[in-house]
């Protein structure tokens, strides 16, 4: 039976704590009013439903009556789902950094009733353990300080509040970021690159897909094979490693070691989306089938495990099952061999590095538990050569075995699926699927992207056109944030590029106008994460740096550049310029923290180029032209298709297209608009060859 105020919440994470003896409140005004009335500080705990250490702390402390009694006596306790309220998380993660605490999830903050933090930590054991302070001791100590040394506590809180108020301010710069920033960033990434294992620096290793996309685009722009190698070596190492689920497909969240072998087993929707786009980018630039296959398999995983019947995409799958991290994904040697040995004489246990004593080291205890994670030390081509088998034949044999292993694994209790639907993460997945439809020439990916976009537009959009952030089982959980607009606009722009359905471009334009109105900082430039009128936060956060997700402001910069190219609106070009200058000083100071931003900046700096196909209708000829132009994407030019059916709507969005008409008798014409000039091309092979030559990087 519930003993707190979380039982009526929609968040799976909050519901995990609804039965705790801790008297939890959700984030609400009443909780802070109660803290003032009772003269207690507020204990804030932030986490998410698929977080392993959140589960550990819930089991050790929040479910324990002794620990709960200490918390209930000393504090008003508030629980927040960081995925439902990333704005709250952003503010107090910044406070944790100000206070010098260990930052991560679960995030633990103690603050005054007027939301001024004075203590921060991450996971805390119930009692003092191996030199780490325990929750009960900390709770008693803070309670004593609150009642006996209030002035000192409030002075600390006031000082933190002052620093926190400036945490999201930007120094900006007078001029614009110099062109040498791209070369400098590549140089810094090269210095951090792990040439032996792929990726950057040591353990833990995160995929950082936007960093790899940046390197690939710079490699194409400069014809630097070394820069491309950093990206592709990392992509291959991740695909071979244990961070890739070789049986069930899809990527785990990160690798706890430097070799990409031992994963943290959560699977996040945003990682699937961002990595799918990185592998598709690699496929575009290199033509390697491995990158295409990886993207296809990511989409297969998402369709299988993270897709709701309504068309939207779920948030994540847990790392834990049956109380243990990774238990669902790991294999005993004899269990695996018993299935594999029936598939013939291929040494599968050696190929995937399984050992009778196990190869998996528990990151909590540091001990082997006799279980194995699957990973490849060599690629399929190398194994095929050693085994004297055709590579495709070996891959087919593995696919047959993989399906049998998948069915066997499916008999185990499955990890929790967090089934809330987030507009921002769905936007990223829509973008990935739309890009997949174009690069892999698969209509089913386009259809899945359209279905998800239509769901967001119908079920997660308010009557005034604004977005909601989160929905679960038909119920809205939270209002829209800048991330929802930025990522979903990106999805709509990619979907327009995959379908040339004007409705998606119209919606992108409308949402960008709303984003500018709701989130733009008129003093310093850039976008706040929460609406500028938000009144339940101590400060308004800005998403500054690229982390596991690319920063909202970096994504918005790319959207502004693309929308300027698609509509001709100079206001968006100017806003992109202001945004670039606002972040300029920070980008120059630590450019490797802004690689997603730099991808967008690179796009914004290039001369606007539009390719408009004017035809009587979209028929076989236009489809053939689009297939030839398949390698053209945002950084090189924006593509538009104008027909008799969509011309009026398209011209309202892009007035410059009014004069671009088909030839006599409705014959198809292709127009390139760049540097104030319009050039027409015939829709034949010769004309397309000349157009593609014009669109090559570095050409004008």
Give your account of this protein's structure.
Helices cover 49% and strands 10% of the residues. Strand 16 (609-614), helix 25 (620-628) and strand 17 form a beta-alpha-beta unit. Among the domains are: 12-165, Glutaredoxin; 333-411, no CATH class; 609-695, Glutaredoxin. The chain is globular, with a radius of gyration of 26 Å. 50% of the residues are buried. The model has no long low-confidence stretch (mean pLDDT 92). By secondary structure, the chain is α+β, with helices and mostly antiparallel strands. The strands form six sheets. It has a five-stranded mixed beta sheet with strand order 1-3-2-4-5, sandwiched between helices. A four-stranded mixed beta sheet has the order 17-16-18-19, with helices on both faces.
Can you tell me the CATH topology of the domain at 12-165? Glutaredoxin
Residue stretches low in confidence (pLDDT < 50, at least 5 long) are none
Structural class from helices and strands?
alpha+beta
What is the mean pLDDT? 92
By DSSP, the count of extended strands is 19
CATH superfamily of the domain at 12-165: Glutaredoxin
Task: Tell me the distance between the termini.
Answer: 69 Å
Strand content: 5-15%
Radius of gyration, whole Å? 26 Å
Sum this structure up briefly:
The chain has 700 residues and is of the alpha+beta class. Among the domains are: 12-165, Glutaredoxin; 333-411, no CATH class; 609-695, Glutaredoxin.
């Amino acid at each position: 039976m519930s003993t707190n105020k979380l039982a009526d919440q929609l968040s799976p994470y909050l519901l995990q704590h609804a039965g705790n003896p801790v008297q939890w409140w959700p984030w609400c005004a009443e909780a802070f009013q109660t803290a003032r009335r009772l003269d207690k500080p507020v204990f804030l705990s932030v986490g998410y439903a698929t977080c392993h250490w959140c589960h550990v702390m819930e089991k050790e402390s929040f479910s324990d009556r002794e620990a709960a009694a200490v918390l209930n006596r000393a504090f008003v306790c508030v629980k927040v789902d960081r995925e439902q309220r990333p704005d709250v998380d952003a503010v107090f993660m910044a406070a944790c950094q100000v206070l010098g605490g260990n930052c991560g999830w679960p995030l633990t903050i103690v603050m005054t009733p007027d939301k001024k933090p004075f203590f921060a930590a991450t996971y805390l054991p119930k009692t003092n353990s191996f030199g780490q302070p325990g929750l009960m001791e900390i709770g008693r100590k803070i309670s004593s300080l609150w009642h006996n040394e209030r002035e000192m506590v409030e002075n600390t809180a006031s000082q933190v509040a002052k620093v926190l108020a400036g945490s999201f301010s930007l120094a900006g710069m007078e001029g614009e970021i110099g062109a040498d920033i791209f070369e400098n960033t590549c140089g810094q990434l090269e210095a951090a690159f792990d040439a032996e294992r792929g990726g950057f620096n040591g353990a833990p290793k995160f995929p950082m897909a936007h960093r790899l996309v940046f390197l690939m685009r710079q490699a194409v722009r400069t014809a630097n094979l070394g820069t491309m190698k950093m990206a592709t070596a990392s992509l291959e190492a991740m695909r071979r490693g244990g961070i890739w689920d070789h049986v069930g497909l899809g990527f785990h969240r990160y690798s706890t070691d430097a070799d990409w072998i031992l994963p943290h087993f959560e699977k996040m929707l945003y990682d699937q989306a961002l990595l799918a786009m990185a592998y598709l980018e690699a496929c575009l630039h290199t033509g390697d089938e491995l990158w295409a296959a990886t993207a296809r398999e990511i989409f297969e995983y998402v369709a299988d495990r993270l897709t709701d019947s309504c068309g939207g995409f779920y948030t994540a799958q847990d790392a834990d099952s049956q109380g243990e991290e990774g238990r669902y994904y790991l294999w005993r040697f004899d269990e695996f061999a018993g299935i594999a040995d029936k598939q013939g004489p291929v040494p599968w246990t050696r190929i995937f590095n399984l050992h009778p004593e196990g190869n998996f080291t528990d990151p909590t205890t540091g001990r082997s538990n006799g279980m194995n994670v699957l990973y490849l030390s060599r690629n399929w081509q190398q194994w095929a050569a050693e085994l004297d088998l055709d590579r495709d034949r070996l891959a087919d044999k593995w696919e047959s075995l993989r399906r049998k292993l998948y069915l066997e694994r499916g008999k185990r209790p499955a990890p929790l699926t967090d089934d809330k639907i987030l507009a921002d993460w769905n936007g990223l997945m829509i973008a990935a699927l739309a890009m997949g439809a174009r690069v892999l020439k698969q209509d089913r990916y386009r259809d899945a992207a359209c279905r998800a976009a239509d769901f967001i537009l119908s079920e997660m959009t308010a009557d005034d056109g604004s977005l909601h952030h989160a929905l679960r089982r038909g119920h809205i959980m939270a209002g829209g944030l800048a991330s929802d607009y930025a990522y979903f606009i990106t999805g709509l722009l990619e979907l327009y590029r995959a379908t040339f359905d004007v409705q998606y471009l119209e919606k992108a334009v409308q949402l960008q106008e709303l984003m500018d109105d709701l989130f733009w900082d008129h003093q310093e430039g850039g976008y706040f994460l929460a609406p500028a009128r938000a009144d339940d936060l101590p400060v308004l956060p800005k998403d500054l740096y690229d982390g596991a997700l690319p920063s909202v402001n970096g994504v918005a910069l790319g959207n502004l550049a693309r929308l300027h190219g698609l509509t001709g609106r100079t206001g968006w070009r100017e806003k992109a310029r202001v945004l670039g200058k606002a972040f300029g000083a920070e980008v120059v100071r630590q450019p490797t923290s802004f690689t997603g931003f730099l991808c967008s900046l690179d796009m914004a700096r290039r001369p606007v180029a539009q390719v408009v196909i004017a035809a009587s209708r979209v028929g076989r000829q236009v489809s053939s032209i689009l297939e030839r132009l398949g390698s053209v994407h945002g950084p090189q030019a924006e593509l538009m298709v104008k027909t008799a059916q969509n011309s009026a709507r398209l011209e309202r969005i892009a007035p410059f297209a009014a004069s671009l008409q088909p030839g006599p008798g409705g014959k198809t014409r292709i127009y390139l608009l760049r540097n104030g000039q319009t050039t027409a091309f015939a829709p034949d092979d010769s004309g397309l060859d000349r157009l593609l030559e014009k669109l090559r990087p570095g050409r004008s």
